């Protein structure tokens, strides 16, 4: 009897703590469709896959866009017939306590880049809520890259310090 009660307690407790595991195929498809919409310059499709409060962080330190700003920035690229092409080379999708987040390596016109983002449900559909794009720099090239951008960084730091303090 004690063993049965213990087993029943373990089953009940483990089922209370479990979360529904969402299939990564659906999430992969959402991210792939988003990248494909940029490649084919499908402005409406691209932005329909982002939440209404989405944020896009670009590779430049000045690129921290709320959705409307990002739409305005992006429109001329889409209007030319091809915005940008990001082809996934590797992707990892994580789910924890109802939060869906991912990272990916991408083949881009800038070489290999890393993207990371958060997906959230909006109107019952998973969409990109936050995305960060960065250029992947091999460790052996960091010193020369740091030297290359040193003056720009110093100027921008001064600008930010004036603005924020």
Automatic annotation (TrEMBL):
It comes from the Bacteria. Residues 30-138 form the SnoaL-like domain. Transmembrane segments: none annotated. It holds the Pfam family SnoaL_3. InterPro entries: NTF2-like_dom_sf (IPR032710), SnoaL-like (IPR037401). This is SnoaL-like protein. The lineage of its organism: Bacteria, Pseudomonadati, Bacteroidota, Flavobacteriia, Flavobacteriales.
